[in-house]
Predict the structure.
Amino acid sequence: MSKVINLTEKTFEPEVLKSNLPVLVDFWAPWCAPCRMMAPVLDELSEELDGKIKIAKLDVENPAHGELAMQYNIQSIPNMKLFKGGKVAKDFIGFRPKEIFADELKAEL
Amino acid sequence: MDEKIYDLIIIGAGPAGLSASIYASRFGIKHLVVGSLMGGLISETHLIDNYPGVEDASGFDFSQKLVHHVKKYGAEIMPVMVRKINKKADRFELALDGGKKMEAKSILLATGTKRRKLGAKGEEEFSGKGVSYCATCDGFFYKDKTAAVVGGSDSAAGAALYLAEIAQKVYLIYRKDKLRAESHWINLIEKNEKIEVIFNTNVTEISGEGKVEKVRLDTPYKNQNELKLDGVFIEVGSDPTVDFAKDLGLAIDEGGFIKINKDASTSLAGVWAAGDITDGSDKFRQVITAASEGAIAARSISNYLKK
């Protein structure tokens, strides 16, 4: 079962900024083909890396999320940001296959 | 190691690979399709309206239909990347991402092309901060803003028209004096009041404070070498993915495209190639030619496996 958390403008702060674990946030939108390709990859990684990292996503098409998308300068999606201690530690932009992304993430943990 | 040996492994899940799979299933070939992007690059295209019977489909919907069609016939599809192909005596060994290995009696290479970078100063630095390679993904962020598309192909024209639906102003910047897109696209661009085409011009630098704010042109436009804008979409063509052709020592042309015969076979027995990666179909790289080469390859492979 996927452990990916669907974020909203209300849960962003407690789930991401105040998290004790590192959090990977995928800024995505339903119309974006590579974002939709990324979804199963994130689902699998959320299980494999459970306990080491939280994986969450924020749909930037939702107008209520526009402010967060602007705050983090989202101009290309899928845009995955790794948050540590409430700050962006690393950006991953564009689709990446699972094994490659798993290695990239593990290198940051 | 997985003991299973496939009759065929198709590498690449775009229109060529998926069409080949449909035919391969119908010919009764036990096969596997592996690809990193299900549906291929066409999945990022905003509109497909030149494939017979498809008058108006988004690239994503079209590619999903292809995947669905393939699955309907029971083919195995694996969303994974192939790292390396080794030729053994009578078969091929594929090393997959994550260490898994697969074996097949025959291989179809349908890995297509990779988007070319522009090579302008600042392109890398501003990637994701105003530099984009996918208009359908990122156009949304340019509502009522100014964007430029660099290129003169069908893809560039399609991107400009798509962006014009969202942005306030779209520049189409091309290095030559005439777009190479289909007349159909050119007519639509000429009629579109939001699009301004700048010919005979290269973008040499992309710059800004934290995000893209302007580009530098090598030829003055309205007496200015600088153009203020919010985003740059790069559509300057694509290059073939050459790694596997090199692994296997296949004959390629001067552009790196795999040379194929009439039946889509390559210079190495047991290896076929189809779609944008080949020099086939008079180098007319379209969904319809990719699908055609895939079908031709599947039949030839079927004949080969029966021998």
Q: What stands out?
A: The first strand of chain A starts at residue 5 and ends at 6.
